[in-house]
Amino acid sequence: MSNGVLWAVGPASLSTFDLNTGMRLASIGLPVGGVAQVTKDSEGRVLALRTDGSILTMRVPPAAGVLGLTNSAEDHVSSNVAPGELVSLYGIQIGPAIAASGKIDAANRLSSTLAETEVQFDGTSAPLLYAGTDQINLVVPFDVAGKTSVRVDVRQANKVVSTFLVPVVEAHPAIFNRGCGIFCAAIALNEDGTLNGPDNPAKRGSIVTMWVTGVGEFQPALVDGAIADAGAIPKLPMKSSFGSTFAYAGSAPGMISGILQLNVKVEHRDDDIFVLWAGGFPSETMFLYVTRQ
Prior knowledge:
The chain is mainly β. The chain is built from no helices and 28 strands. A hairpin with a 4-residue loop joins strand 4 and strand 5. It starts with a strand and ends in a 6-residue tail after the last strand.
């Protein structure tokens, strides 16, 4: 639950419910029939009236627990994690009552403990970017690489408040973006340092910079939680809908390990559609605006 919005599992989907207003959901994969109205009864159950007249009943978990996770560069629920991926966990009472932001420790790495909150992947503590009562932002440890699944333990004040298994994939690339409609608009800087957009497209032949997470392992290997230097490159081959040659595709200097900086040379195109592949794993489709002449 985040800001009064419950992430609840239905028979065929995971949906978001506004428990403060009972308004219609902004949902991912609505149950069959759609949802017309949502309310909460005296026993704490969420009652969703479908448009076909049937009622879907879901119970709000009475205790702390994780309800869902996302790639931090996406706005929908994810079903897996990749090495070095920035991930957000959402739930009920999974972190401190007073939110805390990530801190650099004595080893010059992002701390794996915030306000007595810790998240472990098969026993390895993940670097934490943020911890609040209903959301934790973290970086998946690189040592999940090669596994098919991993056990995640969320700890608060030395007690496990949530445990779950999640599949591991080689990559789950996602481009940081500034909002989605039909497609998402990438957070991208034109060569002159200005924000790329429909009213400020990149010039043909120029370099556009964007940032990605979830591309998997790097070589040489990056250290969990460390502030990255330039030079490490993804192990998986990278290509995009703009081609397979990049001016730069490597660790983002000055940013946390796990973020890829992508410098793309843009050419004349008939559309503004951009997709990135890490190996055989595609990102969501993005808008990257380029002049037509």
